[in-house]
Amino acid sequence: MASGEAVYNTTTMQETKPKKWFLIPTEYLDKVRFVIKVVEVLLSVVAFVLEELVDSCLHCPALYFLEFVSCTAFLFTLLLLVLLSTNLHRTVEIHCWSNLDLVYTAAIACLFPIASITLLCSNGGTELEMAAAAFGIMAAVAFVTDVVVHIKTKGVPFCKRNQETQSSDQSTSPEKERLDSNGESPRV
């Protein structure tokens, strides 16, 4: 019996640690930007909820525009946060996460102040409308901060790709120089 156990012990693999479900930092999201994205989600949802609590409006288009922007920002930022902080971004067949994140965040950073200022300029004077606009402005500041931190840490992804292709075109490897026109290396 003891010899049988020895055979099983040598061939049996030991249990490894289970893979983490939640990964921070990842190649697309570091700890600082993770915290900023959580703040974006929280401020967006507060702006959305406050806007939804307004029961009557005098200038409804401004309120509806803030509703659209805050709801879009909340849902898509939450989705992006979940995708980039877990292994799910590897299962989705998108290879330009950095570009997608930067363009989306910059677009929301432009839309939030427009929607908030529009609501501040044309509202019914209720405290809920003012509070929704204030949280919209705070969310805009968070999105602008995210764009700035993204550019400072990762650079502009569109410019990187152009610089990489230009530098690879200009440099020639020693192997290419040594090959003659037939693709064979010259005999020395």
Provide a descriptive summary of the structure in words:
It contains eight helices and no strands. It has 188 residues and is an all-alpha fold. The model has no long low-confidence stretch (mean pLDDT 81). The chain has one domain (25-159).
Low-confidence spans: pLDDT under 50, at least 5 residues?
none
What string, H for helix and E for strand, traces the elements in order?
A: HHHHHHHH
Q: Bin the strand percentage.
A: under 5%
Helix content: over 70%
Count of helix runs: 8
- Number of DSSP-assigned strands: 0
Rg over alpha carbons? 26 Å
Query: In one word, what is the shape?
Result: elongated
State the distance separating the first and last CA atoms: 67 Å
Sheet with most strands: none
GO cellular component, one term: membrane
Protein name: MARVEL domain-containing protein
Pfam families: MARVEL (PF01284)
Subcellular location: Membrane
List its traits.
188 residues; mainly alpha; 8 helices; 0% strand
Write a concise synopsis of the structure shown.
By secondary structure, the protein is mainly alpha-helical.
Q: How do the strands and helices of this protein lay out in sequence?
A:
Elements: H1 2-11, H2 31-53, H3 60-85, H4 88-91, H5 97-121, H6 127-154, H7 157-170, H8 174-178
Membrane topology: Multi-pass membrane protein
Organism: Aldrovandia affinis
Biased composition (Basic and acidic residues): 174-188
